[in-house]
Amino acid sequence: MERRFDEELKHLKERLVGMAGMAEQSIGRAIKALVDRQAALAQAVIQDDVAINQLEVEIEDTCLGLLARYQPEAKDLRFIAMIFKIVNDLERVGDQAVNVSERTLDLLKEPLLKPLIDIPKMAVLAQQMLKDALDAFVNQDAELARAICRRDDEVDHLNDQVYHELLVYMTQDPKTITRAVDLILIGRHLERIADHATNIAEDVYYLVRGHTIKHRLAGE
Amino acid sequence: MERRFDEELKHLKERLVGMAGMAEQSIGRAIKALVDRQAALAQAVIQDDVAINQLEVEIEDTCLGLLARYQPEAKDLRFIAMIFKIVNDLERVGDQAVNVSERTLDLLKEPLLKPLIDIPKMAVLAQQMLKDALDAFVNQDAELARAICRRDDEVDHLNDQVYHELLVYMTQDPKTITRAVDLILIGRHLERIADHATNIAEDVYYLVRGHTIKHRLAGE
Questions:
Q1: For chain A, how many structural domains are there in total?
Q2: Each residue of B130-172: pLDDT tens digit?
Q3: Which residue of chain A has the CA closest to B196?
Q4: Residues of chain B contacting A216 with CB distance shorter than 8 Å
Q5: Percentage helix, strand, coil, to 5, in chain A?
Q6: Which of A209, B48, B97, B168 is the residue whose CA sits 20 to 30 A from A15?
Q7: pLDDT digits (tens, 9 = 90+) for B23-50
Q8: What is the distance in angstroms between the Cα of A118 and the nearest Cα belonging to chain B?
Q9: At A71, which CATH number?
């Protein structure tokens, strides 16, 4: 019974990591579609989100099934509850990648406003934060988790920079307004992805250390 | 034991409803601050969010405690798992109200751009969706839950309207740009609140009916 449970838990963890990989890939493809102006790739991100959504439902069901059948205690219980939360964040990361792709399809109707520098940088940071958050979870690494929470500020800072730069464009040339607003919204979506990675990292910290850093680091 | 469990579950449900009331109130106050141009009220929304965040952590712990001590099965297990998810949505609703308030504080530095009509309308709709989603949960009302998911389109439609109207302002007068972008972002935050209410409603439907309408109604 014990061994069977461990195997199922291991399998669950693998599926979670697989889902995280899909979410990371969605971010990467959404940004590639934006930078390389590939409408078909943006469309693909939107279509492929169905698979991420499906995985959320499946993994949640698996979590509930494990709880019902094995009634795990303490650490295992919290571990499963944590997976239950992480899939929710991952599903929303997928949604944000879809939002980026929708804005990209809008943007591709008009010529390029400006070469994109900070937005791809934000995407790489957010993607790496998500990857590290999952690594922190898999390896139960509280220090990595804490470090991720701090990196959120960097993404926020880039987002502010993107925002202010685009305000200048709009003010100087009203013809840039719709594109600039689309890019501001894309910045927001990437910032939200970093927030989800931070949520996961906060939860990992809590799981490992038993006390929360949630809603606290912000004030540090 | 059974009776004790029922009592604790009832108490947990009451706290969840209390938390939902706080989240609803935050939306209401955030919009009142915007419409009546009250900076102090916007500040209060930001400060009071701490209490909502705290409740999330507490209710999650209570859920895990109940699972560990009583190892409930089937329906009760899913009910508690559902509360675990709902508090997460409510916490994010609180965050969105904070975001609205931050944009409001920005907006109050400049004169009123235009009388606000659609944004308060969106806020009322989102607030009501959230209230109904919690009612659907408490009363296990699948039909109410399904109806809420459909109302999400109305909020999305208003948000598009807000967006297009503000684009016109910006294009005609660059001096309105920062304010218009703030209002566009506020529209987005309200749309996100309606999405959280929809998430809750989808989960309630699943809990009651045993199959999901998630990621499906959108295409209906």
A1: 1
A2: 999 999 999 999 999 999 998 999 999 999 999 999 999 999 9
A3: A92
A4: none
A5: 85, 0, 15
A6: A209
A7: 999 999 999 999 999 999 999 999 999 9
A8: 19
A9: 1.20.58.220
